From TrEMBL:
It is an enzyme of class 1 (oxidoreductase). Residues 38-188 form the Peptide methionine sulphoxide reductase MsrA domain. InterPro entries: Met_Sox_Rdtase_MsrA_dom, Met_Sox_Rdtase_MsrA_sf. It comes from Sneathiella marina. The gene is msrA. Residues 1-31 form the signal peptide. One of its GO terms (molecular function) is peptide-methionine (S)-S-oxide reductase activity. Keywords: Oxidoreductase, Signal. This is Peptide methionine sulfoxide reductase MsrA.
Length: 215
């Protein structure tokens, strides 16, 4: 009965969002203080931010750096290598609309988790994939999600994406935030030239970008 009530609640909220727009979901989550967050590294944070902004139930995305040992890192420091930091995105979401487990399912299918050298045209440690977990519960869910993907046989290679305890997340420079909306032509050109969408579809086939409305 409880699960049915929760599902009906999700249907109601999605319906309201369809009528009044995504701002309704943001208002509702803020009013009820019903938000959670996850930090994901999937290569270029411009692209990860763009993808997850198109997931119903995602309230906010922030590009940044995490996982390394350098305090207050900059884009120049991180992309030079050696800092240990990865480009990542902090995603705030309403669990009544989209669950943590669902976000992980979407994440896997928006990257190449078999690539240990970076993502697509972006090479080096700062562009590697990772899931940063905030609690033992998130770690357990992430490990189960990873195991299920590996057992499904959907991928030709092994998953190399690590599951890491979250540390300090440093928001990136302002010009990186919402880059895809501030510089749409440059962003689309970069994404196309980098081969991101082509490779994701090669890796995942018809499962690619499942759950992302713009795809």
């Amino acid at each position: 009965m409880k699960s049915m009530i929760k599902q009906l609640g999700r249907v109601f909220l999605v319906s309201m969002a369809a009528i009044f727009g995504a701002s309704f979901i943001t208002w509702y989550a803020q009013a009820t203080d019903n938000t959670e967050s996850v930090i994901l590294a999937g290569g270029c944070f411009w692209c990860v931010e763009s993808d997850f902004d198109n997931v119903p139930g995602v309230l906010d995305t922030v590009s940044g750096y995490t996982g390394g040992s350098v305090n207050d890192p900059t884009y120049k420091i991180v992309t030079a290598g050696g800092s240990g930091h990865l480009e990542a995105v902090k995603i705030t979401f309403d669990p009544d609309i989209v669950t943590y487990q669902e976000l992980l399912e979407i994440f896997w299918r928006s990257v190449d988790p078999t690539d240990d050298g970076g993502q697509f045209c972006d090479r080096g440690e700062s562009y590697k994939t990772a899931i940063f977990v905030n609690s033992p519960e998130q770690r357990q869910d992430a490990e189960i999600s990873k195991e299920l993907i590996e057992a499904s046989g959907a991928l030709k290679g092994s998953i190399v994406t690590p599951i890491i305890d979250a540390t300090t997340f440093y928001p990136s420079e302002e010009y990186h935030q919402d880059y895809y909306t501030k510089n749409p032509i440059r962003y689309k050109y970069y994404r196309y030239r980098c081969g991101r969408d082509e490779r994701v579809r090669e890796v995942w086939g018809d499962q690619a970008y499942r759950g992302i409305s713009e795809h």
